[in-house]
Amino acid sequence: MSVSDPAPIASEFESPSLEAQAAAVKSAFAEAFGAAPQWVVAAPGRVNLIGEHTDYNDGFVFPLAIERYVVMAAGRPASPAAEDAVRARSTMMDGTAEFRLGNLEPERRDWTSYLRGALAGCLERGMNPGAFDVLVDSKVPLGGGLSSSAALEVCTATLVEAITGRSLEPVEKARLCQTAEHVYAGVPCGIMDQFSSALGAAGQLLLIDCRTETATLVPLDDPNIEVLVINSNVKHELSGGEYAERRSQCEAAAKIMGVKKLRDVTSDQLAAARDKMDDVIYRRAHHVVGEDERTTAAAAALQTGDWETVGRLMYASHDSLRDDFEVSCPELDVLVELAGEVGAAGGVIGSRMTGGGFGGCTVTLVRKGREREIAEAICRRYRERTGIEATPFVTKPARGAHIIEG
Ligand code: ADP
Ligand code: MG
After folding, report:
1. Ligand 1, closest atom to CA 145?
2. What pLDDT digit, counting tens, does each position of 300-326 carry?
3. Which ligand ends up closest to the CA of 45?
4. Where are the beta strands (DSSP E) in 49-187?
5. CATH 3.40.50.300 is right for the domain spanning 12-219+398-405
């Protein structure tokens, strides 16, 4: 396909400035609560380069924190309603939400679930921030599969660090935020999202071993490579049980194989046991076992600059998620297919769906200097084929959660 004659892109394609965002959040806080904030903190979203649906199988994931942050500004209220009263506002939501640190209501489900869950984890560890007002803003699209929820949790824990002057060990911080998502949001996620937001480092990807919960930093320092994220802007609301169903299918396969998790199985062992399981269970396991191998292989290839291999593994990951794990959707398939049509000649290294599936984003590695024309060509063709406007942006691996002020 031709990449000439691109249509213009209206959305924010380059990374927004965190400094400018923090300044805007500070003045919005002052306007909302009538005083300047004392603390400003930030936590990024993430995109997973490869390693999908492997985390809850004790396998490997290979994400990067993105240059899109949740930012919070907070301060002590002049006269709090109670010594443990929290007032929270979001630039994305109407009204002011209120709750008490002494009664965090795990069953209550609203956008403050993520804050309350992270606060509960901090309180359990003896970190009590006391009454505060907080204003939240985000450049991570909500519900786009870039983990605005984890960013919100990690940002909250970082705010408590700023207020109390005590710091959490980063892995511990990721864990308490994961528990927040499990208990307060009711989402039984793996550790990847919170880990990426808490431990992300500028210019580095994280190869996370989800069994040991340890991360190896892998530099993405080739100046000729860009990470292009394209939001399909669709989210298929299925029955909702797909995630739980995939998890239990993986558990069933592990049980048949006689291991704790699919992490413990090699491709050869799985192939040898094929007639012991029904076709669906086999294909689910085939994805997970292959994906683990692709993920570690991609991390190795990336370190030696073997982009052809990285790209091939990304496409193979997508095919496997589409055909064996069955969590893609037509829109994600179209985006990846269009990236493939631009191909190596047009500056595309590889492309795949990223995140849990059924919508959300694709991640595409591209040659620097070509990113705009590639994004424009893919989005134009996507619009022609689906009638939907996709949102593309580029990012580098970003710094994880940190205190900006206070
Ligand atoms: P994802 O993590 O992929 O973005 P989720 O559904 O897990 O999608 O989390 C999105 C939810 O997180 C939103 O529906 C909202 O409740 C909450 N959220 C995230 N960012 C913000 C924000 N800046 N302000 C208010 N709520 C937010
Ligand atoms: Mg989420």
Report:
1. 3
2. 999 999 999 999 999 999 999 999 999
3. 1
4. 60-61, 63-75, 85-90, 97-100, 132-138
5. no
